[in-house]
Amino acid sequence: MEITLAMRILRTALLLLLAATAPAFAQPEPIKVKVFIASMFEIGENTGDRAGEFQYWFDDYWKDATPIEVRGATHPVFCNDDGVCGAVLGMGKVASSSSMMAILLNPAFDFSQSYYLLTGVAGTPPSRGTIGSVFWGSWLIDYDLGHRWAEGEVPAGDPLFMPRKGYEDVRLFQLNPALTARAFAISRDVPLADSDSAQTYRQRYPDAVAKGAPVVGTGTHMTGDTFFHGPGLSAEAQYIADLYQADDYVITEMEAAALAQVIGRLHGTDRIMSLRGAVNFDQGNPDESTLAHLDPKPGETAGGFDETLQNIHAVGAVVVTDIVTNWNQWQSGVPAQ
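Now predict its structure.
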């Protein structure tokens, strides 16, 4: 009896000793994200078929990466060994921003020093851009946060939009001017792809900018779930940009201002870059109705879609490479030019 009791005591002591000295179950270290690349949609697979917004990024950075599922996000996140991560977030303000918040809050990632590259295709006014051009966003404006009324319900020539009070902090974001300027300086001379179909389509417009070759530029990105078209609403977008004392409106898209709000809540907006390529004009040519422009006849589309995707990737990738290669300079903030 005494031997049995002694053995039990000894066994208990050994178990307690093992528990005290055994290493705790190791939790994996979160991935330190240097650059997060956000795209809004992919047409089919991530690689090997017709490219959407994500495919050129995927082929460049994540072909061998293991997908990381994130609860609440529409698509998995991919990361490489250099700290470049990315995902498809979904189209529109709600889908994209909810995916972004789920990713930001996931403990698998460390976003404490991350830069964000928000990318995708977009529209442009023919007076300021053309098919294939790529624009860095200097300001992000939410097109939808305000009051609107029909023409004819106010005196002729009066504006049809008024800002709604209470949204001052979320309807307008000036992105870090130093970061925008640095990204533009790094990428302004990147050669851009073009297509015969886009060149032909541009000649339908009288504007010199619309007829010209694609370029890299900067300006205001207008975010709206309303997929607006026509010279009237294009003029309204510029009116809103002027009203908020932002730069000229150059891009119409559907996600950036919402994503800026989400990222800003957790990490601020100083490291956000918005990069969009124009695949359509925001209005028809002077001889074309808005409906005809929205629903073109076969053979009358703008062309240049894939070339614009290539341009977005080419322009953005040189900035991503600069950040990752010179991380010791970028880690604490945008390096001086």
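The mean pLDDT is 92.
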